[in-house]
Amino acid sequence: MTINSILYRKSSAWSSSQEGIQPFVTLFHWNLPQALEDDYGGFLSPHIKWDYAALCYEKFGDRVKHWVTINDAWAFSNSDYAEGNKAPGRCSKSVGNCSSGNSGTEPYIVTHNMLLAHAAAVREYKEKYQLRITLVSHWFLPFSKDKSNKDAAQQALDFMFGWFLDPLTYGAYPQSIRTLVGDRLPQFSEDQSRMLEGSFDFLGINYYTSNYVANLPFSNNFTKSYTTDHHVKCTTKRNGMPIGLKV
Fold it and tell me: First CA to last CA across the chain, in angstroms?
């Protein structure tokens, strides 16, 4: 449920006493208001402000008591700024058919600014509203019992789930990301880390599938891109057998 769908509902439709429904409304599911894209360059800018969120709280707060700030945050950073297959369609030319973008830096910048926007919304409205965030992640299993593949599975989880959850829980990115991405990874100030740490009272997880993971040795031929920074190979089959039942 996004804020757009609320605009056309009568307030009585959301009365939990009448319908037995308590809505959890998502403020951002990849549908950034065009004005914020035009004025700030979207989440590429550290100056992006969620005045729009304050307006939503003001206008609909009497009917909606539970808000989710961001849904499927990883999918937005990856699809829109690493692979470039969703709007605004930014990526490195070596990664996809994009007219502009940098897959090695922009996904990290966008995630960084999304996390800070979420934390700022929590800090400002925590006293009045229940604020939540919904993440998306696969599960990762080692392709074999080899230690390098076990480490690769954890690395894959860090780059998809920990990339968001660690800052929200500990105020810092996972060590594996800091090591592998280096100076391309934005840094949190001490104040930002404190603002992020524990900045949710409910965590939603969208889970769709699992993958086997094998380690990919380091090579100078790797393009600097979020899509390759984790140095792992994911597959849904092992020895010809799928990881689970197809649905």
Answer: 24
Q: What is the mean pLDDT of residues 36-64?
A: 84
Burial of 94 (0-12, 13-18, 19+ CB in 10 A): exposed
- Asked whether 213 and 233 are in contact (CB, 8 A), the reply is yes
Query: Using one digit for the tens of pLDDT, what is the confidence trace for 165-185?
Result: 999 999 999 999 999 999 999
Q: In angstroms, how far is CA 38 from the centroid of its own chain?
A: 22
Provide the residue count of the chain. Answer: 247
Compute the distance between CA of residue 225 and CA of residue 139 in angstroms, rounded to an integer. 22
Supply the pTM of this predicted model: 0.81
Report all structural domains of the chain as residue ranges with CATH numbers, in order of start.
3-242 (3.20.20.80)
- The Cα 177–Cα 167 span in angstroms is 12
Residues paired with residue 25 on neighbouring β-strands, in sequence order? 67
Q: pLDDT grade, residue 12 (50/70/90)? A: very low
83 close to 163: Cβ distance less than 8 angstroms: no
Condensed to tens digits (0 to 9), the pLDDT of residues 63-76 reads 887 889 999 999 99
Identify the helix (H) or strand (E) that includes residue 26.
strand 24-28
The answer to whether 169 and 197 have CB atoms below 8 angstroms apart is: yes
CA separation for the pair 158, 135 (Å, rounded): 13
DSSP-assigned letters across all residues of 162-224: IHHHHHHHHSS--HHHHHHHGGGS----HHHHHHHTT--S-EEEE---EEEEEE----TTS-S
- C-alpha 42/C-alpha 132 separation (Å) is 21
